[in-house]
């Protein structure tokens, strides 16, 4: 099975090779033996992740995410696993492709609601918490999350986090995450979602699976495994998503017309 892993921004491998290696290391720990994973960035996306704090830039960048994701099917991939907790472009791309397109945020919240009573999310940037909480509520998970600040952030600055990623010194990241997680547990969380693709692989390869009995969910792994699962269902001929209502699927002729008019590929 071939999985297309979609990063949220422009992250050329020649610059961010150590992060690609980190994410691949986490994937290798849990992927099915026959699964092949290719990590893709957004060539024309934003470079500074801090710009995702602005709704305008985030939505423009999301359009570039969609342009990247919709190449997966014609390039022979069996499923797409999102690699950003914003679930950038996931819903839109899913309506344009036949193969499964999985968002790490949504699948992680489903898992957390099954694994415990109340979950909390810890991301890497304070200015992202409002949008992530909005997504949590809009996805119908407000009752499954703690009521007080269900989405929180690390205290370290983003540039310090990137320094840790590039140097391989993960201890400051883990210490910061654990401290914030303890506050979540004090506010009745019993499951913790590591809500950032920069942070969660660090915890996974460090074997940090629980804090005081509360499981830690890595959304990148959750997205991968659910993509594998839906990919198998799709190959077996079972339906993997609705084709009516809010996310109705257009006939191939109409999809081709729209993609051609937007100078994208033809189905």
Automatic annotation (TrEMBL):
Superkingdom assignment: Bacteria
Entry GO MF terms: amino-acid racemase activity
Pfam family name, one: Asp_Glu_race
Family affiliation: Belongs to the HyuE racemase family.
Name under which the protein is recorded: Hydantoin racemase
Taxonomic path: Bacteria, Pseudomonadati, Thermodesulfobacteriota, Desulfobacteria, Desulfobacterales
């Amino acid at each position: 099975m071939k999985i297309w892993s979609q990063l949220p921004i422009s992250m050329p491998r020649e610059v961010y090779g150590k992060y690609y290696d980190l994410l691949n290391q986490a994937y290798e720990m849990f992927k099915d033996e026959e699964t092949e994973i290719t990590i893709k960035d957004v060539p024309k996306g934003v470079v500074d992740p801090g710009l995702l704090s602005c709704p305008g830039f985030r939505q423009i960048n999301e359009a570039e995410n969609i342009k990247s994701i919709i190449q997966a099917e014609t390039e022979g991939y069996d499923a797409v696993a999102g690699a950003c907790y914003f679930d950038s472009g996931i819903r839109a791309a899913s309506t344009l492709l036949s193969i499964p397109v999985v968002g790490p945020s949504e699948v992680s919240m489903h898992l957390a609601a099954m694994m415990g009573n109340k979950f909390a999310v810890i991301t890497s940037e304070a200015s992202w918490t409002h949008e992530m909480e909005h997504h949590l509520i809009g996805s119908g998970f407000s009752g499954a999350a703690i009521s007080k600040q269900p989405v929180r952030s690390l205290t370290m600055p983003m540039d310090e986090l990137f320094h840790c990623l590039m140097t391989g010194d993960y201890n400051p990241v883990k210490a910061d995450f654990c401290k914030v997680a303890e506050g979540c547990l004090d506010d009745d969380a019993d499951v913790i979602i590591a809500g950032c693709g920069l942070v969660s692989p660090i915890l996974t390869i460090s074997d940090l699976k629980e804090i005081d009995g509360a499981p830690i969910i890595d959304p990148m792994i959750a997205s991968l495994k659910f993509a594998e699962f839906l990919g198998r269902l799709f190959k077996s001929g079972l339906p993997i998503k609705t084709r009516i209502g809010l996310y109705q699927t257009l006939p191939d002729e109409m999809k081709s017309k729209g993609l051609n008019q937007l100078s994208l590929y033809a189905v």
